[in-house]
Amino acid sequence: MSSVVILKTLGVEKAITMDITIDEAEPEDSINRYAMNTTCSGEEALSIPLHWHKDHAEYISVLEGRMEVTLNGDKVILRAGDPVVYIPRRVPHSMKGFKGEKLVFRERPDPAGMYKALFFNDVFSTGQFGGFWHILRAFYDSETYLALPLHFQFFDEVFIAVFGGIAHLFAPRKPERL
């Protein structure tokens, strides 16, 4: 019997979903306990803009298909079966799928914990990628920053602090649980 349970399926965009999973056999502090599995039918190409995380790293693996990952300015094509890619904290990264190609990829946060699942639950709480102000508020409430063209992380942090703070005045509130 599998110990992996889908806690929630989120609508990301048209023909793109994310399963938030837990492996109940893994201890709470294991990076293998929580995973976000994103499935893209290929009807639309996945596009995750350039961003970075202040306090956590990520492990990304492609389970089916392929995707382009930009990591600190370097682009690589990841395919199903390739080794897991480690994305250190504070390193700008983006991901793109290919239109017409199915893609399934897994993301695991490091350090381990439910916080990343709660972040995605917030961002996609409307059943799709949230609007501009919603995203700024969600980024403000987490430790995720858009990588602005200035290539200076201090400005990224100020941008989210100012506009994410303003977004708190009228953007939807953060859901407290899945």
Key terms for this structure?
single chain; 178 residues; 6-stranded antiparallel beta sheet; 5-stranded antiparallel beta sheet
Average pLDDT taken over every residue: 93
Question: Element order, helices and strands?
Answer: EEEEEEEEEEHHEH
Sheet with most strands: strand arrangement: 1-2-3-10-5-8
Structural class: alpha+beta
Q: Considering DSSP H and I runs of 4 or more, what fraction of the residues is helical?
A: 10-25%
Q: Ends: how far apart?
A: 24 Å
Largest sheet: number of strands, sense, barrel closure: 6 strands, antiparallel
What is the subunit arrangement here?
Answer: single chain
Q: Which radius of gyration do the C-alpha atoms yield?
A: 16 Å
> Which segments are poorly predicted (pLDDT under 50) over 5 or more consecutive residues?
none
Number of helices: 3
Strand percentage lies at 35-45%
Shape: globular
Would you count the extended β strands for me? 11
SSE inventory with pairings:
Layout lengths: L3 E10 L2 E8 L10 E7 L6 E7 L3 E8 L1 E6 L2 E6 L5 E3 L5 E4 L6 E8 L4 H9 L8 H10 L2 E3 L6 H15 L11
Antiparallel strand pairs: 1-2, 2-3, 3-10, 4-9, 4-11, 5-8, 5-10, 6-7, 6-9
Helix pairs in contact: 2-3
Provide structural commentary.
It is a single chain. With 178 residues, the chain is α+β, with helices and mostly antiparallel strands. The protein has helices spanning 115-123, 132-141, 153-167, and strands at 4-13, 16-23, 34-40, 47-53, 57-64, 66-71, 74-79, 85-87, 93-96, 103-110, 144-146. A hairpin with a 2-residue loop joins β1 (4-13) and β2. α2 (132-141) packs across α3 (153-167). The longest helix has 15 residues, at 153-167. The model has no long low-confidence stretch (mean pLDDT 93).
